[in-house]
Amino acid sequence: MGYVRFVNGISPEPSPEPSPGTHPQAGPEAAPGRIVLLTTSHRVAPGLLSWPAWQALRTADAVLCADGAHPQLPYLREAGIAVTQTSPTARELVDACAGGRTVVVVATGEGEPALTDGLARLAGSGRVAMPELELLPASYDLPGARLLDLVQVMDRIRAECPWSSRQTHEGLAKYGIEEAYELVEAIEAGDREELREELGDVLLQVVFHSRIAEEDPDAPFSVDDVAGGIVAKLIHRHPHVFGDEQAETPEDVKQHWLRTKAEEKQRTSVTEGVPLGQPGLALAAKLASRTRTAGLDVPLPQGEGIGYELLALAVRAEAHGIDPEAALRAAARAYRDAIRAAESEGRNTAG
User: Fold this and answer.
1) Contact 60, 36 (CB under 8 A)
2) In 64-87, which positions are buried (b, 16+ CB within 10 angstroms) versus exposed (e)?
3) What separation, in Å, do the N-terminal and C-terminal C-alpha atoms of the chain show?
4) Which of 60, 111, 129, 247 could form a disulfide with 252 if both were Cys (CB 3.0 to 4.6 A apart)?
5) Where are the residues of the annotated region Disordered (predicted)?
6) How far apart are CA 13 and CA 6, in angstroms?
7) CATH number for region 6-137
8) What are the extents of the domains in the chain?
9) Torsion, Cα of 85, 91, 97, 102 (10° steps)
10) Which one-letter DSSP state was computed for residue 84?
């Protein structure tokens, strides 16, 4: 691989003067060359570059990088790629491409906005023979890669924010409940933008609690432990996906799920694991679902009062595939709208 020799690490030596009688624009020296802006993702391990990226690096006449601490540099040098640490101006970069040379610029984490803006201005002036400019992504984010950013941001906030650094699991518990309800509200409202935001808020609670848990002196665990645990659980409880078992209907899946949970937790009753602190209608529906799935025929307790009537309504709703909590919320929203309409009519009449 040939390399451009740089004066002060930036500009190439002047091209030789044309021979008498030759046109100054003729010959290979007049070719404008090529600039390759190589971008990489900090969420992918350094050195894991695409084949087109390695081809561009190995065939380039020069490889430049403004950041001497760029995480890719050790891997490029190990592969025999000579990298010049420099931050050329747009004009210096164009000059470095003179004679048909190819220059690869390894972009920093922020990209190279000053350089690309300068190249755009040169191209717009119409006074410079511009080299070919190629943007070459050398590595791409994998699905879920932005979760790494969230973990890093949470680490810094936990360390530096006066409020976040003092939070505990107990102090954050109420926010988890609030965010869960706001998520449900966004789902029921059909608001996609709100849904995306509320999912983020719920995810924050998971990452925040996991970060706090790392500091426990007796039984620490991290967000990786949390993720690893749920991955193992999902695989174990879906043998029809990851194993040899068969499941033809959603009910088959649900029965296996409950059976596996009972084995894992050594439960002796289908009611174990049902949180009694959840809203009453949801609690009644959950108990009815567990009973029905287990094939038990348990008569409803007889008693007087609104509680027993609501219990019967909740069990009937669950049997028909209706979420009684969601149904009541929908009816409550209709009631709210009726109240607002009455208030508006009252104001109009008074006016």
Assistant:
1) yes
2) bbbeeebebbeebeeeebebbebb
3) 86
4) 247
5) 7-30
6) 6
7) 3.40.1010.10
8) 6-137, 143-232
9) 50
10) E
Tokens of 139: 């590595």
- pLDDT of the chain, 351 residues: tens digit per residue: 333 333 333 334 333 443 433 334 444 445 789 999 999 988 888 888 999 999 999 999 999 998 889 999 999 999 999 999 988 889 999 989 988 999 999 998 777 888 889 899 988 888 888 899 999 999 888 888 889 899 999 999 999 999 999 999 999 999 999 999 999 999 988 999 999 999 999 999 999 999 999 999 999 999 999 999 999 999 988 888 998 888 888 888 887 887 777 777 777 788 888 888 888 999 999 999 989 888 889 999 989 999 999 999 999 999 999 999 989 999 999 999 999 999 998 888 876
- Contact between 215 and 223 under an 8 Å Cβ cutoff? The reply is no
- What class, spelled out in words, does domain 143-232 have in CATH? mainly alpha
pTM of the complete model: 0.63
Phi, psi of 11 (to 5 degrees): -90, 145
DSSP code string of 26-40: -SGGG---EEEEEE-
**Cα–Cα dist 43/143, whole Å:** 11
